[in-house]
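Blackboard transcription, Thursday session:
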Amino acid sequence: MRSYIYNLDPKKMPDAWYNILPDLPTPHAPVLHPVTHKPVVPEDLSPIFPMNLIEQEMSSERYISIPGEVMDRYLMFRPSPLRRAYRLEEALQTPAKIYYKNESVTPSGSHKINTSIPQAYFNKVEGVKSLSTETGAGQWGTALSIACAMFDMECKVYMVRVSFDQKPYRKGFMETFGATVIASPSDTTEVGRQIRAENPDTSGSLGMAISEAVEVAVKSGGSVKYALGSVLNHVCMHQTIIGEEALLQMEMADDYPDVVIGCCGGGSNFAGIAFPFVREKFNKNLDTKFIAAEPTACPTLTKGPYAYDFGDTGKLTPLIKQYTLGHNFVPPGIHAGGLRYHGVAATVAHLKKDNIIEAVALHQNPCFNASLMFAKAEGIIPAPESGHAVCTAINEALKAREAGESKTILFNLSGHGHFDITAYEAYMRGGLQDLELDDESLSKGLASIPDIQE
Amino acid sequence: MRSYIYNLDPKKMPDAWYNILPDLPTPHAPVLHPVTHKPVVPEDLSPIFPMNLIEQEMSSERYISIPGEVMDRYLMFRPSPLRRAYRLEEALQTPAKIYYKNESVTPSGSHKINTSIPQAYFNKVEGVKSLSTETGAGQWGTALSIACAMFDMECKVYMVRVSFDQKPYRKGFMETFGATVIASPSDTTEVGRQIRAENPDTSGSLGMAISEAVEVAVKSGGSVKYALGSVLNHVCMHQTIIGEEALLQMEMADDYPDVVIGCCGGGSNFAGIAFPFVREKFNKNLDTKFIAAEPTACPTLTKGPYAYDFGDTGKLTPLIKQYTLGHNFVPPGIHAGGLRYHGVAATVAHLKKDNIIEAVALHQNPCFNASLMFAKAEGIIPAPESGHAVCTAINEALKAREAGESKTILFNLSGHGHFDITAYEAYMRGGLQDLELDDESLSKGLASIPDIQE
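(Written on the board underneath:)
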């Protein structure tokens, strides 16, 4: 019998997150204050984040220990399975070996819970009782709702309007765990009212929703803090638990990836699977290839300039050196809502600039096509975001078939598509558009990138 | 660190299904031909089932080996995790220890795939290219759709109309795997047209949907066979993989259940978790308690007489000695669609009659209340059907608290509620009725039980 699943013994689970900052081969551009444009100091961030997470954000330690209370919750569902996609390989008639981390079996149905649990925990120990956040397709909002329920905290979620309408079950899912869910932009914040006044028909964006959630925290006088589901260094770091486990599981499989693939919106899922393998590449001088897969409708890494920009539409966040389409960029309403972000994590951008990682942009129809093929072979319906990783893995496997060479491919199946069935139905009816990025939106976005002199 | 999950090594996975028939302490009532009322012979069943499954149905072998092709698909997701519900125990402040088999992480999101895979396989090896079936809440239809995709077969699903309307995502899920889904009763069969003519506003029932699916098989001249998701002996037997794994996992946890709980509609999920422990009870003279949890809206085991009845509304199936509310009984439209069945597996009924197992009936509001509590503690939203097992486990744990005694409880979390979010929303809004069973429906149902002289 062949082994499909490599289950890591919980006793062998990695007990620390990996911080890539100290290992970057070239210096990392400093994060700047949104008004003074001077490098931020911890106090600048304290209105929205607790100090312990700010310390993690700026840490130069290579490893951060996972606290017992967090590990206790992780052990409810981690280590996640590493799966060999034998049946997909057969369907593709490829000599390539395809492995994937199955993050779809976590309680939230995606990788996002890997950071929501520590974020809730670190806020809790600093006395915070309530968290506000944004969510795109709902994966992050769901994960934070579950984590808040685990630590008896309140949770308010601003959900991008287009996803709020496309994925009605997500709202109920979050409410089941006690969260409050609001379609963004909303009338509950100043920034939301302003955006709606200027653009009443907007379908929303992650940038807008972030502004709303940050405003709630800033105006709370300390009782509410803000939690972000991607982009920041501490978020990417929490996700490295995926790659750390995968390293041990690839060892169990007596194999090692030639290519590591993740879809990329804000970058945390990509960072999570890739960074521990990037470390190994550095340490052992390996020639592992890394591919971040993004949508053509929001081609941050493939079409954006490398520049300082805000993380949100309302310019409330610090300025981060990144690839960006501009904080005013509003991507078309593709179903991969979690990838509709104008920017990307500074570390991911930095590695891209240094050509340590690559990026590809994909249309949504080939991603759904690949996801359907994956579903029929592997029995799991991928989230539309994860579909970008699936499609990229399949493309790599087909290249290996053409070249007639064996190759080991590892990708992160970041979540399931149980709440995206209407998107699949639309695809099967032939009703999906490939939603080309129009020049006007792109120009408008790019024009909003501030001119920062370093 | 405490261990939440007991992952069985796939190499130690049980390699046979357990057939309880030869171990029953009293003789099993024969299954009768629907017209002649004589004990059925294999040939009677051959228009709807392949001969290899008929042999399993009637087998007196204690164990049936799991074929390699089936084991290969099982190993894509099995063994399923056994989880200790520490956080639920803490929330309940009970000295009881609660364990559950987590069947919600299978590709279909429920235990149903444990039998859909072998059923598709055994049909395939007899040359069958297409299967027809019924589904209630959609768990079984989903499972058969995935299994048919795995073996390149066609799949037609008759879905009970009330569930078809309540759970629209289920249809898309099944279609993603290539199945055809039809709301039942429909105009595509003679029996469907007849039922609609008599009762145009019917919300449908499993009994009606079975009749439609059976008719399709019977009239196909052999090209289509019928697959049933519960009730039959071979179906219950395939599900024993759950209990067989749980036995080994309880050993890993160095514990043994005092109480084993499963929700009960047709009985296969209950049989799956319970029968291997019933065998141990027989063999080792243990005093393990077994509880089958059913809805008060469809109280087959707690209010039905033990009598011969048809499995379907159209009287196309053989007569089975069982607890039954009558094949014409139409239960209220509770959200636990999978438990809306008038009858129950003959083996489960037999064990109930002999007082080897017990049954309880529950209203849907306490089940949703228990499920919300479970979700907040354990991070998993149970299917409404599984909510009956959750509620029963919680009740047992609370009894243990009152009595101040430690007790080990094991239940089967048969599936997740990702497609039942509207039901949770309705519950949270206070909009659920406890849907009492009205005397008229019950009388009408009971009156349809045929008078069979043994």
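Lecturer's comment: Chain B has two domains: 23-66+112-233, 79-109+240-446.
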